[in-house]
Design brief:
- The chain is mainly α and 103 residues long.
- The longest helix has 32 residues.
- The protein starts with a helix and ends with a helix.
């Protein structure tokens, strides 16, 4: 068999492999989308105020008032770090933030 005759077989094999991979990734994406939990769950200590505001659609002013801070002053800090810095028990801070989360 000549080189020219082998070339189409390689192209067909490469196309077949690409098609199999595409189908596998598409099925995986479909499985992930259909098995996602739409509810984010309760507020946890690892969450930052920005994450909480985006996830639960809370205005920055409400979050700042709940935390007792100026808006934007806790950027990048977790609730655990904010509680520790403010001398507030973590459970109290979590409960107060959870109270402003829409149900």
């Amino acid at each position: 068999m000549t080189r020219a005759a082998r070339r189409p077989r390689r192209l067909i094999a490469a196309f077949g492999l690409a098609l199999v991979l595409f189908i596998a990734f598409a099925l995986h994406a479909l499985w992930v989308v259909t098995h996602l939990d739409p509810s984010p769950g309760p507020v946890q200590a690892w969450m930052t105020p920005g994450y909480i505001m985006r996830t639960y659609d809370i205005p920055p002013e409400v979050m700042a008032q709940t935390l007792g801070l100026e808006p934007g002053s806790a950027r990048g800090k977790t609730l655990e770090e904010i509680a520790e810095a403010g001398g507030i028990p973590l459970e109290v801070l979590l409960a107060s933030v959870q109270a402003v989360v829409p149900r």
